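cron nightly-structures :: item 1 of 1
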Amino acid sequence: MDIKEKHHHFLRDGGEMGELIRRFDWSQTALGSPGQWPQSLRTIVSIILSSKFPMFLWWGEDLIQFYNDAYRPSLGNEGKHPSAVGQKGRECWPEIWDVIYPLIDQVRTTGEAVWFEDQLIPIYRNGKVEDVYWTFSYSPVNNESGKVEGVFVVCTETTEKVHNLKKLEESEKRFRNLITESTVATVVFSGNDLVVELANEVMLKFWGKDSSVIGKPLLHIFPEQANQRYFGLLLKVLKSGEAVREEAALVLININGKLEPFYRDFNYKALFDENGNVTSVLATAIDVTQKVVAQKKLLQSEQRFQGAVDALKGILWTNNAEGKMEGEQPGWSALTGQSFDEYQGFGWASAVHPDDAQATVDAWNEAVRKRETFIFEHRVKMKDGNWGQFSVRAVPLFHDDGSINEWVGVHTDITEQRSAEQALIESERRYRVLTEEGTVATALYTGPGLRIQYANDTMLRYWGKDRSVFG
């Protein structure tokens, strides 16, 4: 090639491809040397070499090829570059010629451009045929007579984008499957209106709704939530990105026109986009209504039981299956002043009167062995140092398999009762001594018929009767 022809102004610059095109022996092609090229070809080649965007050109009947540095990476290594420069299209692209030639021919025949996005066109590069995706346009290039002489390609490889989109789609699919197949009630809210983007069957069942709620705002589905705190909590998570979790939270849901209470363990978690912006809120909920209601009933029952124990001036305590005290026993500690270290195990027996302690332990062990109710009375040294008389009753509570879970016992203070009984006995004894040994005739009448309950010897002598008159 003539040295002057190497430096035509339309072949200036262009980086690596500009240098290759300048050094290429174009005289061996149907185009001839650059000095013979029509102005239309010179212009389009100049545009291609000076552009930073990937561009490619087929020219003439042989579809001779040109491309720039921006297009060059798409050809890979150990592939078509640099032999593709000046090569005929059919010779360069045998593996995809049946795909691209109809498009080339369409542009050349109709004079109208075509455009495709993320089109799969496998090419040979890097030593093998690879699946490559392209977004491209084929446009006609007219010669000086107005005939379509070339096909100008503006393109960008989108293989990585397509692969990333596929990965995203797979990830989204897995995410949706994870939600729909989850046994935990799950819903995704998006936007400030908290539109239901996705909800699984468990959540729909919780709500008493069907899939028609998908795509609707939360307050459209549950207008009663406007006056409850959970709508605000969801908006807070959407705004701040900070998760919120609560247990046994009370939720009022409109069921047939009536607000019914439900209890939920819930977790609100923000979902972010690739830029770190919150896009939606993932909400999970576990229905614990039955558990909470049962706990409330149990608490009420325990409160009533403790109230009854308190009314009887008693204390409540529990022992393990072996009959040993374990865990804190506030009632026993309040009564005796013993610490946990002192009363744990069988340490409680040290608070029992020495004369009653061994008998108590023996009777207790026998009840534990026989798994039967324990009933006993003994004296206990109280916190103030005085000895109190207590009635003890304990029953075993069983597991479903029949084994003992624990013992529940009550110590009832009967000190005053026993003192009163003893005082009455002593009073009666003194009364009888007084009347029996006294010289005054004495008799005791009871009931409407004035039945003779008692008469001393002086009265019987006065009556001339014996004790058969009693009753």
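cron nightly-structures :: done
The first helix runs from residue 15 to 23.
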